[in-house]
Q: What sequence folds into this?
């Protein structure tokens, strides 16, 4: 088995284990103990526990690999680097909602090569490795065959790192183009839904590497058109992202003013 194939199998297994841990730690609605890191930027005890588990297990399995987590614990360097968002969709998680996930990606330098996104409450696993296709619960997935932006559903992500005016302008541009906007509170799952053809696009004016590291491989293998997130300092400071079904990508890129 090649090194990439072995890591892919490990990623899917560990992401599933991490998702099960998060689900066990989820409190009932109204019983959250989450704290704020910033405006609408929540963190829970489960975030730290999941990240620690993944860091320790990956260090044991691949001691030469690097590791980067959203919560900043046990950072390591390596030519192959694991990037983790322990719970994406924390605002949903802390309120007892189902739309949250564990996102585990692997990069070779700045090239995303493995992605596993597990949404345990939804019983869904999105997975891909470079050259191996993308799947949802083991079944191959592809982007939607949508060619008219006026028939599209576009999920939007909100980030405090861009102004309210910029976000409202984006919403207005999407609506003016005839698309149906929606917000569901998880960038990783929003991107995975594009890969699965459930929605036609996802757009966010600023997003961080840990939110997209797993999704970038899944999107590429599912045939999505994706803006160059890793360009410039995207890996360290984040970038805008636009991921879309190829048939609407150019029109949405123009409407959102995000280059492909």
A:
């Amino acid at each position: 088995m090649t090194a990439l194939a072995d890591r892919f199998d490990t990623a899917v297994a560990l992401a599933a284990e991490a998702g099960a841990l998060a689900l066990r730690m989820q409190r009932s609605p109204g019983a959250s103990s989450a704290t704020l890191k910033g405006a609408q930027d929540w963190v829970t005890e489960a975030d730290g526990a999941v990240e620690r588990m993944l860091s320790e297990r990956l260090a044991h399995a691949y001691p030469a690999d690097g590791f980067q987590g959203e919560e900043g614990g046990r950072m390591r360097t390596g030519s192959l680097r694991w990037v983790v968002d322990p719970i994406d969709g924390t605002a949903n998680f802390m309120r007892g909602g189902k739309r949250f996930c564990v996102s585990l990606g692997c990069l070779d330098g700045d090239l995303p090569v493995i992605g596993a996104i597990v949404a345990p409450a939804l019983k869904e696993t999105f997975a891909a490795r470079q050259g191996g296709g993308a799947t949802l619960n083991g079944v191959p997935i592809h982007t939607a065959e949508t060619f008219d932006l006026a028939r599209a559903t576009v999920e939007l992500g909100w980030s405090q790192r861009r102004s309210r005016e910029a976000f409202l302008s984006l919403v207005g541009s999407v609506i003016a183009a005839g698309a149906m906007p929606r917000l569901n509170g998880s960038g990783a799952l929003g991107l995975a839904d594009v890969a699965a053809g459930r929605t036609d696009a996802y757009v966010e004016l600023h997003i961080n590497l840990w939110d997209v590291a797993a999704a970038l491989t899944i999107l590429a293998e599912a045939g999505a058109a994706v803006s160059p997130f890793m360009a410039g300092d995207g890996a360290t400071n984040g970038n805008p992202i636009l991921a879309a079904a190829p048939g609407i990508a150019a029109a949405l890129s123009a409407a959102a003013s995000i280059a492909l």
In short: The chain has a mean pLDDT of 92. The longest strand covers residues 80-88.
